[in-house]
Specification:
Largest sheet: 5 strands, antiparallel
CATH superfamily of the largest domain: Transferase(Phosphotransferase) domain 1
CATH topology of the largest domain: Transferase(Phosphotransferase), domain 1
CATH architecture of the largest domain: Orthogonal Bundle
Number of strands: 11
Length: about 400
Amino acid sequence: MKGKAKHVVGGGGEDSMKYSNNNGGVAWSRGPLLGKGGFGSVYLASLKNPKLRNGYYPPVMAVKSAEVSASCSLQKEKEVFNCLNGCPFIIKCFGEETTRDGGGEMFYNVLLEYASGGTLAGLIKKSDGVGLPELDVKRYTRSILEGINYIHSHGYVHCDLKPENILLVSSSTKAGEFVAKIGDFGLAKKSEKRNKKRKIDPYLRGTTLYMAPETVANHVQEPPCDIWALGCVVLEMLTGKQAWDVKPDVTVDELMRKIGDGYELPKMPSEVSKDAKDFLKRCFVANPMFRFTAEMLLDEPFVSGVDLDGGEFVETLDAESVEWKDTLCGTDDEFSGSSFYEEWSFTSDEGSCFSPWSDDEEGITSSVDAMTHAPRVEENAVQQYLPTCTIPAGA
């Protein structure tokens, strides 16, 4: 693996020096930069001696790294991965390791499954605003939904579901196909409904364009928020466009007011199937108490008949065979042309069933009658989830 510095993507400078191949682990070497996020940088990694298959590390991995002094969020993400092991629709975590670069700087590394297909965002971008074939959307949606259901059943909320955080891993049974897997748990949190003591967190987690009305209006972030975000992702896959059609001069505050009011919903595409429309209706319910759960959505006709490949995949690539320019995931900045991709740093609640859309509606204008029964995010929709204040340890 020596002499591979010429493949490092992203130019020279501090990052290239800190994350050179010399800054690898005991059994792996660090390769090119794949992407940069708010909590660390992701690099390709390969085993130093791939012939010595230890049965634990695959030949090729993705390594998410941060300086030890700034690795608190990455360490918390590793704790979430520890609790979510075993789901074939969540990116695998192979462990953690602390390394030191040539200058003596220490780095915390989390070893993750490598997604050779990049991100769902990259795939959507390649559609040039047309969207993906509906059969592909069904398959990816089913995979993502299985992952969400697993996350929720284990007491967690992802809080930042979006195409950039859905990774495409090579299928174990069908050549040329990819399995959609959920990654990036840097903003994930435990569901408050499982805690007897409610906590107040004044901050929002996630990306504005994918936030649910109750998140914007009341800082409520519980399982229904992930379902709303899933609807945004599915709509984006179907149309090639973001769920909210915002003008260039619209500010983040204006968009948040639009979402938080709950009277307007993302526009329903007319060119998709009835099953797809029905699925979206179950996701885009302003009142979280009447939004479908992941378990309920798995029975929807849009995804219920999809045959998934969730089997174990043994990566047969080695570092020599990876073509960097084709497989790079891209940095957050690549997909952040709009200020609406602003991410928030840290939280509060729940629900589950009927949509304010009527079956013959092509757009998201909710009827007066429907909104009378499921109004924006009223106090009574979140009253049962009001948190109580707790004093942080050490305060």
